[in-house]
Structures are given as C-alpha cells and as structure tokens.
Amino acid sequence: MITPRAKPTRAKQIEIEAIAAEWLARESNGLSSVERNERDVWLTSDPRHVAAYLEFNDVWKSLDHLVESPAGAALEEEADTELAQQSLKGRSRWIPIGLAAAAAITVSILGWNRFESSERASNAALTTAVGAMQDRILADGSVLLLNTDSAMQVHYTAGERKIVLLRGEAHFTVAKDPTRPFIVELDRIAIRAVGTAFNVRRYADSADVLVTEGRIEIAESITIPNPPLRLASDPVLGTLGQGEFTRIILRNNSAVKVDVETLLLEPTEMDRILAWRERRLEFVSTPLSEVVAEINRYSKRSLIIADPHLGAERFGGTIRTDQPETFVSLLEKSFSVTAERRTNDVVLRRSR
Amino acid sequence: MRIDGRAEVAGLSIIADQPDAAESLAHHQELDMLAAAIRALPKRCRLVLTMRKLKGLSHREIAIKLGISENTVNAQIALGITRCRDYLSTRGIGAKGSK
Fold first, then answer.
1. A309 touches chain B (CB under 8 A)
2. Which one, of A265, A258, A218, lies nearest residue A244 by Cα?
3. Of A7, A53, A40, A34, nearest to A195 (Cα)?
4. pTM for the whole thing?
5. How far is the alpha carbon of B23 from chain A, nearest alpha carbon, in Å?
6. Is B43-99 a domain of CATH 1.10.10?
7. Test mutation, A13, A15, A16, A58, chain B, max B CBs within 10 A
8. How do A120-121 and A134-138 pair as beta strands?
9. Predicted pLDDT of residue A8
C-alpha cells in the first residue's frame, strides 16, 4: 500500500515487515494487555503496517494446515530425528517443569489460538459465543477485540464508520481518519472518536466506557434514516480523556436522559477493567455473588450460589476466564465451600 | 473447556470467511509447498517453527528444549514467517497472489 506523500523506500518496507513479523511472533506467545495496546497503536498508525501484518498473518496461519497432514508428519519426524541427535551430543538441556505448569501453558496456548484472528471486515455482523474472543481488523485498519457473548453490527460508509454495539463488550483501537468519524452506537447514545482507543461494555440498560488512549465524545445519536443523516447539532453529553471512565444510563428508545460523570482511574484500576483481553478477571474485595456473575459471562456451565451469606463474602484475586473449574476448586480448598457439580451448573454452598 | 469461535445468533448473519491465502493453500500440493517453505529455513529456525506449529509447544517449552532464550524463539519465528512469505511469494502463493 502506498500513501500519496510517503514514498516508501525499500528500506522502509523492510523495516515495517520486520516489525510486523515480530508482532506475529510475540502474538504466538500471547500478548499482555499492554503489548496488545502497543500492537494496535502500531497497526493503526499507518496503512502499510496493517498490510504487512495481514500478509504475514496469512502466511503464519496457513502453516496450521500442515497439522495432521502427511507433509506435516514428515516435517515432525525430521525434527524429531534432529532433536534426538542433538540430545545424544548432550547439548539439549531438558528441564522438567511441573505437570500443572505444563498443563496451564498448554491451555493458555489453546485458548489463544481460539481467537478469530485479524481478518478485515466491514458492513458485517460480528458475534462471539460464550467463552470466545475475536480479534478483528476492520477495512480502515481499526482494530477490534470482542469479548465473550458479544454482538455488533459494522456500518462503514464514505462519511462515517459506525459500529452498533448490540450486546457485550469490546475494545476499539481506532485508525486515524478525521474525515470519517468513528462512532460506537448504543441505542440512542453515540460514542465518537477520531483516533483513539477505548473499551465499551454494554449492560441491558447502561454501558461502561473507558478511554485507554486519546479522547472521545459522548453524544445523543440523532439519525434520520433513509438516507441516514446525522444532525450537525447532536447534543454532546460529555467528553472523556485518557484514563477516564463513565457509566452511561441507556433509556431504551425513550427520551434519553444521560448522566456522564467521569472518573479518572488509577492505572491499576484500568488494568483490572481491561484484564479480559488477557483472559483474566481481577477482583479486589469483591462480593462473591459479583465474582460469580462475572465468571458466568464466560462459561455455559453456570456457577450458582445457593447461600446468600456466601454470596456476600468478599473475594480478591485473579481468575482465568477459560478455567472456571480452577476457581471452583480454589473455593473448595481455601474458602470452605462445597461444590455440587451438575450437568449444566455448579451449586456452591458453605461447608458445614 | 471448549470454546466456540463463533456462533449463530438470532437475527444476525455470520460474517463469511474471506477465501484467503490460508484456504487456497488447503490443497495437497500446496501443503507440500508449505512444507518445502519450512524445509528451506535454516536449521534452528526450522526446528522452532516445527515445534511451535506442528507440535504445538509453547515458546517457553521450545526455549527449554533447544537451550535458547525465549527472545531467540521469538526472533526465529519472526525470521521464519518472513522467509516463508518470501519463499511462497516467489512461487506465486501468498496474500498478494490470492484473491
């Protein structure tokens, strides 16, 4: 991809490709939330970055087709032979790691590979199942990460880039384009950005918004359908800068009354909200009932607290969203809880 | 625990997968081409890619097995991706060659 003013020299292209390849390599090892931000900022800062990244991503993903193929089996065998020769020479230092640790590593890798990876999409419905995540690059180079059980509609036109968030949660890293505002719509609320990154979690009648970079504007979304026209004078309800958080009350399609009260969050608090991007949930002295509600977003097998006193007890710690069973075992071992494991749910009670 | 990548939701159609390079390579001959691309890599790079992609080992496990650092594993994977792209694109396969 060639931008009008920047004349890409071969050296520049090689440099971009080296960075793109490095990102894919790091991604293969699992990115932290901070690294993911860094990657998305890099991707959205230049269309050439996205192009190189997508090209390498195709190559890297295509290698998966070798798994369980005769050609792949032959490669594995050759590698085994080479590795055996190497260890005969005593050069290989195999350090056994604990079984549990090995299992955890495998699970986390499987989890990571379950990401729908970086495909371009526009004017489409994007959905994720319970427990799934999706990493998407849109046609303009903006990057979306969808959390569990989420649904959104992408409407890109010449004049604007609109995403209707129907359900769930997503983090948006927006490619800069001052001529085409980027809008996330929730009922009659519009979150507008030009080049920025933010997280939106939708509840039935409210939504949490956190800006991780840049600035956004929250406005009433007044759109006249057919042809869709946006009034120039959409009432702006508030603006949010980096590190700022707000909860918007959505009053479904009735007269909108919105409170935009912003809170400036500590970096640790931001990390806690964004931990889902690393398949983690972090709790600080949170009532168990809330902890369980959060975990249940990620699993079809619900955890049920059958004892109100237990629900009020406070829990702190980190839980992997793809390992609810680990949390249940932890409760059994350390919090004197009895778990009754049934087919579709797990009932939690205080041990007697 | 099983995680479904995507699921049907009432009233929403599922975005169709674009036929990308990955899919056009699904054929037998093209698998051989991919294997050839890996075989053409320098030894350590080839071992790292085979262990990551075919054996599904983590970067850490590969680092331990080969007695190298995790940074080296990353660097070898980055090199491997670049070399494989070069190998495939000179043979008319790859993101730019596919529709």
1. no
2. A265
3. A40
4. 0.65
5. 7
6. yes
7. A58
8. parallel
9. 58
